[in-house]
Specification:
With 300 residues, this protein is mainly beta. 8% of the residues lie in helices and 56% in strands. It contains 3 helices and 18 strands. The termini are far apart.
Length: 300
């Protein structure tokens, strides 16, 4: 009964959904391409990264995200790179799939000053599983809603990004989820339009010694119909083999991360979140990622 009431209150909102935040990941230190398509081919070139994230681990139906990314330089153009990503995200009755390819191009503005542009294009698909809320055998409803999920038609999407690099300084912004018109459904009169998200980032690599380095990173996320979010993270790395990170993301979310190179060409990372302003163990998040530098790994 509670599920049915929840559905009755949320359906009017679903009739014209206007925005959805891009699935969250904290794997940006291992996979800079996931932070901005502008880095395709220039940072972590030739790296394949797979990740799994479980949010709100203390709550049934919390968001789950699977992702895979790859980027590399174009062999015939030293200033151009390619990348691709696939992200599947599920939260309660909602699921969404992104499949995107990226092209990046770098120009040298002055000595050691580079400007990088990234453009992504791909498809988006959304599914709403209404069957979860009809668990009363005495309740009759349209068989279309009982026997199958409600799937949207395939929708075109694109991202645009610009990044700046000077020695150990990186900064840039990203416009994601750029689309035109609503995602519609064949079965019911629902509309969905994941309007563009905006993300700005800046980081700087400090080489403390020959073996130790520290990289602070700032991220600001925003978008229409949801509150902007600020994140501050720092990673310490030893001999480019083992690293640890700490992060804060408002409102009141703290993160700790650990990772390292298992063997040449293979690295593993883990991030854990805890929310300080809610009950303990209710909104914890776990994220694990595996990175494979294909060229080095295959040579080994």
């Amino acid at each position: 009964m509670k599920r049915l009431l929840f559905l009755l209150f949320t359906l009017p909102w679903l009739l014209n959904i206007e925005a959805q935040q891009t699935p969250l990941s904290e794997n940006y230190f291992m996979d800079k391409y996931s932070l901005s398509p502008s880095y395709a081919g220039y940072i972590h070139s030739g790296r394949l990264v797979t990740g799994y994230r479980s949010d709100w681990s203390g709550i049934t139906g919390g968001p789950k995200t699977l992702s895979i990314t790859y980027n590399d330089l174009l062999p015939v153009m030293t200033n151009a790179g390619l990348g691709g990503k696939m992200v599947y995200d599920r939260a309660g009755i909602f699921s969404q799939l992104y499949i995107m390819t990226s092209y990046s191009y770098r120009i040298m503005m002055a000595k050691e000053h580079f400007l990088m542009f990234g453009l992504s294009a791909g498809i988006y698909h959304n599914t709403i599983d209404l069957t979860t809320y009809y668990n009363d055998p005495g309740y009759t409803i349209d068989p279309v809603l009982i026997n199958s999920d409600i799937s949207s038609r395939i929708k075109f999407m694109s991202d645009f990004s610009v990044a700046y690099n000077w020695k150990y300084l990186d900064a840039g912004f990203l416009f994601s989820n750029i689309s035109f018109g609503d995602a519609t459904y064949k079965e019911v009169a629902l509309k969905y339009n994941p309007l563009s998200n905006v993300r700005f980032h800046a980081s700087y690599l400090f080489n403390i010694s020959e073996t130790w380095s520290v990289t602070p990173l700032m991220i600001i996320r925003g978008g229409k119909y949801f509150k902007s979010q600020f994140e501050l993270a720092v990673q310490a790395e030893w001999s480019k083999k083992i690293w640890g990170s700490l992060a804060f993301r408002d409102p009141g979310i703290f993160s700790i991360g650990l990772g390292g190179n298992i063997i040449k060409g293979l690295c593993l990372g883990y991030n854990f979140n805890i929310a300080s302003n809610v009950a303990l163990n209710a909104f914890n998040s776990h994220e694990v990622a595996l990175g494979i530098d294909l060229k080095e790994f295959l040579k080994k």
